[in-house]
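Board work, copied verbatim: VCBS repeat-containing protein
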Amino acid sequence: KSIVVDDVNGDTILDIIISGQGSGRNNIGVLYGLNDGTFLIRKSYSTGVTAAALSIAIADFDNDDGKDFVT
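↓ predict structure ↓
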């Protein structure tokens, strides 16, 4: 598993992104930060492959001014 902290939804509040989630460990989990220091319930996104997502990187890989995940 890998954990990254970044503002992925553009609200200036840090979010937590976790790779290796789910039964096949091929999901990415996102905890969206709230301004009171708590987090919204985790959203889970499939990587679309059967291999485990053991690491994660976040950047604007496609130059659209949005954050992208790479596992």
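The beta strands are 2-6, 15-21, 27-31, 43-46, 57-59, 68-70.
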